[in-house]
Amino acid sequence: MDNVVEVRDASGALLAYKIGTNLPDGLKPYSKEADFIQVLSWGYQSGKKLQSHIHLPSPRVASHTQEAIVVLSGRVKADVFDRNRDILAQLILQAGDCMVFLDGGHGYEILNDNTHVLEIKNGPYPGLEADKEKF
């Protein structure tokens, strides 16, 4: 899978992954069923209809925040850290790339003016003090 770059810690645990813009046709899951944040790509031609649906109530328990970012324009450098705050990877994301953070730490540097990013994470948000430890 050239389109996916994985970052793992010394024990082999998956901490983060980057999904590039070369997406496959059809429905492609990138996340594991147990991940708190679920990521899939769609690749269809015009006229394809996806069945209308409602998501049923399904209680979920999350032990920590997982997040994903999608770069809409510009470029971002994403630093990925393990739980010991040791840097494991620095990845450059460009427009269309998605980065998913499952565990460990991360930081960002905006590389271009007018960079726009969507950030998606599991909620509810407990507030800054309860959610983050900055370093």
Throw out a few tags for this protein.
3-stranded antiparallel sheet, Jelly Rolls, 5-stranded antiparallel sheet, 42% strand, mainly beta, globular, single chain, 135 residues
Explained architecture:
This protein is mostly beta strands. The protein has one helix at 128-131; strands at residues 4-8, 14-19, 26-29, 40-43, 67-73, 75-81, 87-94, 98-101, 105-110, 116-121. It has one domain (4-41, 60-131): Jelly Rolls (Sandwich), CATH 2.60.120. Strand 1 (4-8) and strand 2 (14-19) form a beta hairpin. The relative contact order is 0.25.
Uncertain runs with pLDDT below 50, 5 residues or more?
none
The portion of residues assigned to helices is: under 10%
CATH class equals Mainly Beta
Structurally, the number of domains stands at 1
Mean pLDDT, rounded to whole units?
Answer: 94
Strand content: 35-45%
| CATH fold title | Jelly Rolls
Major sheet description: 5 strands, antiparallel
What spatial form do the alpha-carbon principal axes imply?
A: globular
Number of distinct beta strands: 10
CATH-defined architecture: Sandwich
Distance N terminus to C terminus? 33 Å
Report the order of strands and helices. Answer: EEEEEEEEEEH
Instruction: Supply the number of helical segments.
Output: 1
Strand order of the largest sheet: 1-2-8-5-10
